[in-house]
Batch of 4 targets.
Target 1
Amino acid sequence: MERFMLIVREDLKKIGRLKTEDRFAEGPDMTDWIKSLIESGNYIGGEPLAIKGRYVTQNEVLSDGPFIEAKEGISGYDIILAENLEQATSIAQSCPMVQQGFAIREVRPIQPFIFKTPE
């Protein structure tokens, strides 16, 4: 099994205007979908992300970075196990947020990081 990140992309301007409790009340209930992934052994974890944050570059830190100005941005993630990219894509397509048009899921394999040891 391989690990995949299912990145949630939503309209940040729209959800940024909502109170936290309203943000989650407007979308579909994700509970049964997550439970089904846990029961099938495919779910590792995930969480929604706050809309506010910092955008960090080599020379500056912006408190209202370009991600705030963008219409669509990352609003959450899930980490899953799947046999391959096709199965991970199928799992992402079954997400209630995708099926009801609330969000787009980007499916990305998680590549193991290889640490360099000092010589």
Target 2
Amino acid sequence: MSVSTTPERELAHLLVNALNLEEVDAALIDPDAPLFGSGPGSLGLDSIDALEIVLAIQQEYGVELRAADETSRQVFGSLRALSEHVQSLVSG
């Protein structure tokens, strides 16, 4: 498991709270593990979860994400990729 950065940890907590993932410890989410699907380490999220993530990020960070964007598969690929994308929008 990779070491999480502060923005990744904050985003992990946001995801756990927004998606009511009561059985998931945000501190234990591997930032490089897939968010979607059923592979090893995956959170097992689905398309409805993606929409909820978009709304939570918009409310928390004031940035607009599009779940149907061309790059969304890459951006939503892992906590790390999503965090880096959000941080680029916030600081950009």
Target 3
Amino acid sequence: MGEAKRRGQLGRLAAEHLRQRQRAGDFGTPGAAGAYLFVLDKSPAGQELLAVLRAVAADFPGLSEALEGETFRLWSMSAVFPFVVLHGGEGSASQRTQLAGSLERLLEESLPRAVRLLRPAGGRWSAVAALAEPAHSAVGAALERLRD
């Protein structure tokens, strides 16, 4: 029971941290938060971020719809797609949910597509990645390159 309570407390702290970043304008206009990009895999880190995203979904426009959408459900049930990118911007929930079957596809196709679709939401955007290594480091470097 102690471990479950500790994980719950850490999840609440992580959710509050994302909400603070959102209020500060890290994800676009303060209060609007449409310029977000979340990258997950099925690792424990990805599952922890997913729990946090479910808790804060109402604070990020379109995130609830993406988490309930058909494309996201496909990712959650499939062993074919280890990576998912959820992002703000224009389009339907399925258009704002990018799947990748490999790290190479994630870096070369899914992330650039997500950033292209996100840019119309405003010039400033922020990303949060929760992935196992070596994907976490590779995605961090790719996001820095895409930011330019």
Target 4
Amino acid sequence: MAMEFPSDLQYLDSHEYVRVEGDTVTIGITAFAIDQLGDVVFLELPEVGESLTKGETFGTIESVKAVEDLYAAASGEVLERNEDIIESPEKLAEDPYVAGWLLKIKLDGEIEGAMSAEAYGALVQGH
């Protein structure tokens, strides 16, 4: 299966993506990460109003294979979380980039260390 990495997103080496729209940042996990995890069975995400600190864990994703930490691509306040995905985490695999977003935050500062779709694709190609 060919993996898609939309070019309008930025990617982190911890396999999260970010979509920046003004000072609002949408955070999710990549198709590669979902493929590696297998069937996702549980998501733990922060509540609206909580603050994220860039580089710190903000939640966990659990699959039939493993439990992995989720890392914040940026610092900011949680504006919204995807309740549909929390209730039905198996849907992540169907559409990780549009319907499968995890959080929206109000950006506080910069996003550092993010890479283009091409660079991320090259990074995961060897796996």
